[in-house]
Amino acid sequence: MASKTAVKDIITLRGSAAIVSEFFGYAANSILYNRGVYPVESFERVKKYGLPMLLIQDEGVKSFLSNLTSQLSEWLEAGKLQRVVLVIMNKESGEVLERWNFGIETDNEVVEKGVSREKSDKEIMREIQAIMRQIASSITYLPCLEDPCVFDVLAYTDTDCSVPFTWIESDPKLIANPQMVKLHSFDTKIHKVNTLVSYKVDEWDE
């Protein structure tokens, strides 16, 4: 008689923090590539989430993003991270042109009691794929960034959270009267990530 083996995908707090922080790393790379913040030749093609993805090869940016995802993972595991915002600014004037906002909802019962949740890896991957596809297609509606740009990352944490000395207090780098586009969200059952991009509208477009 044939037997059937069923496998449950158990998601732990540490596992969820790793999934979400890794997602931020790939999403940041995708935004920097698709928005032309760095030249095309600075990126190398890899496969992730069942999609062709691009990773920056500049050592300074790689190191920045690696330290960032490691710190985000720590805060996610402690249930202290509320949102992460990738900001694109005009290099010369410092004017904020885009804010890629990743809001985070955390299941506090998991943080406080150490319980786990169930959700299939495939389902999580499908949800992440949908966001990555939307980031790639954002060039169809976002204004063209014609001048050289730089980026920064803001992390919104609980007030009682310990912050490494490499991070500094910052203003929220807001955009006056921005246009906003809500993207898909993904949920590990422990952390839910809601994605939104807001951008400056060119006067000529109004």
How would you portray this structure in words?
It is a single chain. Helix 1 runs antiparallel to helix 2 and helix 1 (13-34) packs parallel to helix 4 (121-137). The chain contains four helices and nine strands. The strands form three sheets. The chain has a five-stranded antiparallel β-sheet. Strands 1-6 form a two-stranded antiparallel sheet. Strands 2-3 form a two-stranded antiparallel ribbon. The relative contact order is 0.21. The chain has a single domain, classed as Cell Cycle, Spindle Assembly Checkpoint Protein, Chain A, CATH 3.30.900. The longest helix has 22 residues, at 13-34. It is globular, with a radius of gyration of 18 Å. The chain is an alpha+beta fold. It comes from Genlisea aurea. One of its GO terms (cellular component) is nucleoplasm. Belongs to the MAD2 family.
Helix-strand layout with pairing:
Layout: E1 10-11, H1 13-34, E2 43-48, E3 51-56, H2 59-77, E4 81-90, E5 96-106, H3 108-113, E6 117-118, H4 121-137, E7 149-157, E8 179-187, E9 191-199
Antiparallel strand pairs: 1-6, 2-3, 4-5, 4-7, 5-9, 8-9
Helix pairs in contact: 1-2, 1-4
